Amino acid sequence: MGKRIGIEVSIAIAEAAGLCNPDVIAAYPITPQTHVVEHLSELVAEGHLDAEFIPVESEHSAMSACVGSSAAGARTFTSTSSQGYALMSEICYIAAALRLPIVMAVANRALSAPISIWNDLADLMMARDTGWIQIVAENGQEAVDLTIQAFKIGEDPRVMFPVQVNFDGFTLSHMVEPIEMPSKAEVEAYLPPYRPKLRLDPDSPVTMGPVGMPDIYTEARKAQDEAFNSITPAIIEAWKEYGDKFGRYYKPIETYKTEDAETIIVMLGSLSETAMTAVDDLRSKGKKVGVARFRLFRPFPADELLAAIKSAKNLIVIDRAMSFNGGKVAGPIGLEVKSLLFDKGLAPKFYNVIGGLGGRDITIQNFEEMVDKVVAAKNGDLPAYEIINVRE
User: Is 125 part of any domain?
Assistant: First the structure.
């Protein structure tokens, strides 16, 4: 059986990755992700993990090495953050298009400029069109569980896509939390050895990623899109199997007190726990408020989100990143949710709030003020979006 320990979340993610028996770890350090790969290098160096650890010269090289190792049939892991993710993004598109089930832990951090090492979700949102599965943790236990599940999901023959596990930099990555760590035997019972559907083999040569001339490029992209649109059932199945074994279940959209809620806050990441605390306080005052959080962000869980929010009179969508589009909505999640509402002919009062940029706090009081504002407003009186906690 596993054991409950107090451990830094980054170290716990590294331990979880190690329990999955990766063959190759290729990585470059960047704050606040460094502790993940640093601890994995220690596990390899001390003989606790039988894997190749490749210290490369950049994040671009890290993902390049991951693509090569995964294409050769190796279970592969890496980790990055922010500007490092921006540098490796060129190769991230290739990993997804080649259907390589690389697992990457991303300690979410603001993008420059100005330079910021603190948390927001700019890197997660930057990567949402790369073709990677994007899963989001709220706390250390979820980060551990989702890392283990990521290998199961990505390597499923029905899936075969890379998986990104997101966790908030510093506000989660550097926290010490009580975490139930599964045993090696328990993880091996859940996660079978990796058997790739297609791999580079000198005895049976194939070509991966050749030039796509105009007469085949569109068809290749369409095939990738159709495959990506089909994988959510396999993700849900992997989560259910994990829950049956370990007692912790996950869903694409997870809800808190939304059943009778008139106002629902839509968001993702560790800040959701602050929002749920605010909901408890508002409920004690007789206000019907709930929270709907993304556990799965790509593929976008439209049906599950719609089921959670369709009865709400008021929607507050929290974004911790900007989409500089010059339009009516400036938050990436806000754009997606508003599109879904339009598609389904729903028109609740809609309030897109942008905050928590570069590590700035969003407090319980902020959430309560948002709820009071949207409830009191008349249709058409709310701003298209509002950036909160801006000093004048």
Answer: yes
